[in-house]
Amino acid sequence: MTAVDERESPWRIHGMSVEGYRHRRQGLPCQDACAYTVSSSVAVLAVADGAGSRPRSEEGSRLAVELAAEQFARRAAAAADCHPGEAVHELLEDAFHDVSKMFLDATGADAADFATTLTVVVLAPGWLGHLTVGDGFVVLRAGTEDGERQFHLLPQALAASEYSNETVFLTSPDAARWVHTDCVSDERIDGVLLSTDGLVQAALNRAGGGALSPNTSFVDAVFRSLDTVTDNTHEGLANLLRSDRLTALNADDKTLLRAVLKARP
Predict the structure, then answer these.
(1) What is the pLDDT of residues 195-206, one digit of tens each?
(2) The pTM is what?
(3) Are 44 and 122 in contact (CB under 8 A)?
């Protein structure tokens, strides 16, 4: 979804969600979703991963990203003079509260059936805001070192406890407690990638101690494919996400939403 003509935005944005091999084999729909909205000054990107064990998670992920794109953009537009720092964290938390309330109001007593993760990025003049609940992730492209592009993985949300790998959902009790927010101010940022956990094995490397970092070859190729739009940009991404190579790494649904800064004249 987009709010205005993208030509007004300094960012070129593109992404999609595709069903994983397991869902294709079982004839089930994709339970991931992504959405974005842009204006001349602010862009909001959101991805969500519906809980596979819940009967209406496909609807939940779609509702979550639509509400996030709308409410985070509204909050950011109302805070045009917001500066990097604590004010951005408050803006993100307030927007999450709006989304959570509207989501629970819309789903009512059956909210748990719509369980989904949510990861959001707000791109505003002078800062980038990031909020996540669940296991989505965000990679930034920012600057160069010795002529090589540099990529940075933003911190992810905590698990439900230090002893658990259980994913926290938008509908989880006390979900706000597990929300993670970031504010980044770096004029070198010219690329942002959001994804659900279906691409963890492809997009991230895990060190011996368990720490995650961007898989440079994968994320660099994904960003570069959007730096210059071609007639097959959409088809190319679809083919990548459904490729045997990625399916062999993870059979889950896959979402990739990316934004690159347009070349300045």
Answers:
(1) 999 999 999 999
(2) 0.93
(3) yes
